Amino acid sequence: MTVNTNQNQYLTNMAAGKTAAGGTANAGQQAWAKAQLAKSSVPSSTTAANTTNATLQTNTLEKKKADPILPDLRAKSGSSASQNPGTGIFTPVVPKVTPVPAPTTTQPTPSFSTPQYNDWQAKSAEQYAALESLTGTPFSYDPETDAGYQAQRQLAQIRAGDASKSAMETANEKGILNSSLTSSQLGQIQQRAEQEAAAYIPEYRQQAYAQYQDRLANAANLLNTARALRGDQFNESVTEAGLTGNYMPAGSQQLIQQLIGLKQQAETKGITATDRAQLSGQADVIRSQLQAMGVNTSTLGANVSAANVTANPYAGTRTLAGQEMDLANKQSNWNAYMDMVGQTGNLGSGPTQTWGSLAKNANAGQQTLAGKQYDRGVFESDRAYNYTAGRDAVSDKQWLDQFNEQVRQFGMQNALQWAAQNLNEQQYKDNSARQWAGLDWEMSQTNRSAYNGMNLDQAYGAISRLYGTPVLDSSGQPTGKNTMPTNATDREKMYTSAIDLGLPETQTDQLLLSLGFSKDELSTLNKKHGVTEGK
Description:
rod-shaped; mainly alpha; about 525 residues; two-stranded antiparallel ribbon; about 65% helix; 6 strands; 19 helices
């Protein structure tokens, strides 16, 4: 960054603890000024221009003493004149114009590179100090230090030198070179040059004031940018929380990276116990800071390797959306588990994230009431089948003996007629029995609607989840079992909820017994609530 001499002096004074108004610069202003000095330079052209001006002023003083006839012209123009010995004509020496750099719009405003979110406070303090320094320094304008104005002034002096040369040549031709008239004319030329240069001062002052306003605006914009880093950081954390379900407070990610670095050092081969203890102490401090931020440090403990911490970077506070997702995941696992229980009649090994293991462990748990009822039904069905098969075998044997006896006594033709008549009678009896059974069933269903609700297992699960307390394993996961309440109030509520399910009477009795109600307890509650037993 290029600065002029005045700007360089301003920065030097502020770095030394002095403001332009004569006050004392604070630590932030001093740090800013030192940083600007480190990356700024004063162009050599400025120094050369100052040297040329000093030389011109020295020549002016010398010529003023040597030639009293043209004191104003040579003093103001900064030029010298040589006299031709033969003609006596003074030839003004036009000063060589030193190229003056164009006014720069680059101001010594503070800047910073890629934003670091954890430095937003430091950046804000730095930019605020710079803005405070600028606003605390009143605007002032000195045309003698304005390179643009000085260039305009030199051009005016060059034109005045040309006009003076022409006037002196004309006066020399007329023989009045050393007259007071010529001196007066030359003085007027120089005066007009000074007036021409002075007329540009308001324009250059306005340009300098606009640059001063630009510096204030730039400093304010940088301050707003530094403050916006905090908003960017928060928005980034919120966006990440929406994607991962974990909110990482400001600065927590940097602390986790520091913790990973300490773990990597502690895992280095050959590290001494003393060094490891020191690293462990530093890690404990970081974990305490993370806990104060609300970060779950269970996955950041001393027993967790750096690789595992790196593999699980989202250890922040669980968001409401994340908690809802966890609950939905648990509910899905529970529903899948209950479906498997309903299909197999066994409790299995409980809910799991891996649904494939539900089928593998389907027969691992206790048998449910529905499973027991199913097994009982299979047993009764098999027993009835075996009984019927045995009875039919005896009946068939008796019928065959009777048929053979008919053949022996009356012959084959009469025996076949007897068999046909016997078959018709049996079919008639079967058809009559079927019709009577159908009539009985229709009459029994006239004032009753078919039950179409939950089964016994579903009812048991609903009541146990509503009133029971889940039994957890050592890792805090539900085992699929519940402990029923023991106080009378909750048990009575559980009783009324079971009755309100509207199960068939036999299933209601089975449900209440499964929930742990004794017969005496049920008798008391039935009387209290007006439930007639046996119906």
